[in-house]
């Protein structure tokens, strides 16, 4: 069916359902309000149940909710992760505004702890999303003394990671660049620190994160596989607080508090300097290598008046590492988010956000005769407007739009010294992305809720640009260029646009069980050009152009959700099917760096992925945790016009992200009054690899004869991590906490990659390389005052 | 603090990766003809080697000894190559198998009733070597027969040349070395008894070796420039530079297809399994089976215009302290060793 007709039918459906839901009612009054935490921060996603009537409502991004009620007295029960549940009685005789303040759960041995949002999972239309807060994260086992957001993401259902020492992750059969990785609304283009052992998120100032894998709200766009929405906490409104943390190779400091009644701030610094340890090594290569990073966050929040709040979140990081006498790599991330939240009325909120993300990368060659500096980077600017309207009974309306400018500098090679290289600069890659969205969450009946959304996105690739025209029927390559189309600065080279319908539907079977279904179409106009296993500092980001069409994904998902009475257990089961269009793979021996005819080294095709994800969680008691099991497959089909542009004869082959079985077990056991023990076990099928069908001699050396792609698999991956966490000790105003972790407890030598090697006297054979081949203990210590 | 200094390297050492053998499915293993063909304007560099690729369960070499090998040109040249040993075919004695830049050559191989043919390849004009220099360096290196590479001091061989601006150029290098070794036959230990069994002869020998370093470059980033100190070879002091070495550097001006072929081989050799490795790639050669186009033939007929430069290195000229070459045996047992002093030594 043509795309336009589908969109029209969907729109009609949205309005029809809306009209059906709006049958005349007796006189109703509006109860609205804000839910705040201990420090005055607005809580998004707090769940309120209003009885009698058992109306459930979730707070929006601003912590606001609104519900229409008949005259009477009601009991509001409000729940939020890590907070003690609050009950409050309200009498409604007119439109009424309430302020609900939640307090943190006090620590007791037999505490009732909510480790996730079990209630909301069953009652909301949300599916395929996982929520982790800071408290949960810091209890997970650490590597090199630090809990890490990106590492913890790969313990979630449907997520596998790219390998040890990399922070890339793959969601439901998609590649690493198909995940929108956010920090306070700003996108990151390289979220790595120190070879991926750390990521850009400082766990001390993390508020929470949510990973959306399906049922992605129309509010989000730009990437087709997932959205990792990470929020950092604001400065507290009570008093100045400080926190210091140390581990053997890193140090952290943060401070936050009120500057006035209206203004709070937070600053945090972190740095890791493993260089001094590397110097102690006898091995020359390690001794002369070095690596470091530091980063800092700053946040301000200014409450202008009850209706207006302005906040700023800024981040800067610098990374470097060097191999002896060879090459140095440096990269910097600078992010800024300026947000103005405005309350138009009790049922109408708005947020204007200005986002800036700047990523700069420098590779420097220091070998004599080949000295060079290669500078590249991305500059991203975005303005977003998001509105929430709760004025219609049984409707929660979100709408808004955004406009973004991408400016990619693919690199300038600057030779110096005795270098024989030529100066070379590739033209910059510029594009505008704009989008509009509307999403309506409709309570159709007591049991049925439908969230219907539509997003329209448009992308324009902007000149200056020289676009090559290749001879038809010939493999793309510089020998087959028949013409060059030149576009001047500001000229539109190519435009792409399309609708992105999103639906999720919930039907409550009982108070504790529900069935959900979702459909989403997502579009992506920027891609990471990398044929290595992980996101590395030498990868190239590229915007869609005449030859590189936008990536599109269609996903349908079905789910069953259950929460036991009092939320002791919850269980979910989701199945999904995904179709991916305009997927990129690479020609054999592709040249990606500083290549003006990059498209001639790329191959384009389709993908499909399907899977089933089960998750069982225990939320209360001495032992809490979860077991998640995923069975999924992911394939690509690259059938080009010529044999050189076809992979595996045009047949579907397992993608690099195809790891069928993925089992994660996380347990958190209350050992003694002040001690907790957590353990994390991961098992995944090995990733597909290209293998050789024979070996041969050439030029006096032995080679493997690779044919085709991804016919076999690496050995399976499994690992157990444990952590012993000392809970907070209070001495006056000072709080101490610490943990001891062992990563890879039983020392499994998990294969990171496979290669063929020949040792004299033996047949050439396949070998696996393990990045981490032994248990890694680490310790960390935090002081708060 | 001393404790910490001891503990921390240990902790980090645990992070260090390790390499272990894994099993792969051997049922899908195949045998293919492997053709290594070189044709240049320098007679001594022209040869064809025919072998068969082997399954990973077999450690043995298999050579094709009964093929009929010819190189023909569009200008009517016809050069016969005859079998020598170990899969090598050399131009027939007395034949003038020397290529001319600008001409187009084809390799023809007949094995039984199967005919294999290369695509026609143009011999490109050679690019002169302006200078050959050396610098002391340390690199990991394994002599034939050694299981593990070891870090050795030696010379990096660096060439200077001027890249022609008017066309795309692709280069690779090959080497011929003649060198003198002094061994210690009096320290010979009998391999079975383990007892000293001094030999009386011989100390001084001369060896001849062809050295290859898989390295190709294009002029994508250096077109039209004078290229200085292009590193093309590493020669450890041990063995090669114990007394005297006469090194000939051949600079091959190769085709773009040959460049792509050798580059993928080079990538495979450089792969260490880190995040920076490109994935393994299929090496596409320029030789096909005329009777069966689905048959995969591995290898390339590389036709190149060659320029050469010879340099002599004396041990005494090297400003680096190196222990003398240790070889406690008769020098004549070394591969290709002779006691005859080469002409002009």
How is this structure best summarized?
The complex is a heterodimer of chains A (785) and B (345). Chain A is mainly β and 785 residues long.
Describe the structure.
The complex is a heterodimer of chains A (785) and B (345). Chain A has 785 residues and is mostly beta strands. Chain A contains 6 helices and 50 strands. In chain A, strand 24 and strand 25 form a beta hairpin. Chain A is globular, with a radius of gyration of 27 Å. The model of chain A is unreliable at 5-23 and 106-120 (pLDDT under 50). Chain B is mainly β. In chain B, strands 2, 3, 4, 5, 6, 7, 8, 9, 12, 13, 15, 16, 17 and 18 form a 14-stranded mixed sheet that branches. Chain B has one domain (30-338). The N and C termini of chain B lie far apart (61 Å). Chain B has 3 helices and 18 strands. In chain B, a hairpin with a 2-residue loop joins strand 7 (104-111) and strand 8. The longest helix of chain B is centred in the C-terminal third of the chain and has 15 residues, at 256-270. Chain B has helices spanning 2-15, 237-240, 256-270; strands at 18-21, 33-40, 47-52, 68-73, 78-83, 88-91, 104-111, 114-118, 121-122, 129-141, 150-162, 170-182, 204-218, 226-236, 244-254, 287-289, 298-314, 337-338. Chains A and B meet through strand 43, strand 44, strand 48, strand 49 and strand 50 of A and helix 1, strand 1, strand 13, strand 14 and helix 3 of B. Strand 49 of chain A pairs antiparallel with strand 1 (18-21) of chain B, so a sheet runs across the interface. Chain A: It holds the Pfam family Plug. Chain A: Keywords: Cell outer membrane, Membrane, Receptor, Signal, TonB box, Transmembrane, Transmembrane beta strand, Transport. Chain A: One of its GO terms (biological process) is siderophore transmembrane transport. Chain A: One of its GO terms (cellular component) is cell outer membrane. Chain A: Residues 288-745 form the TonB-dependent receptor-like beta-barrel domain.
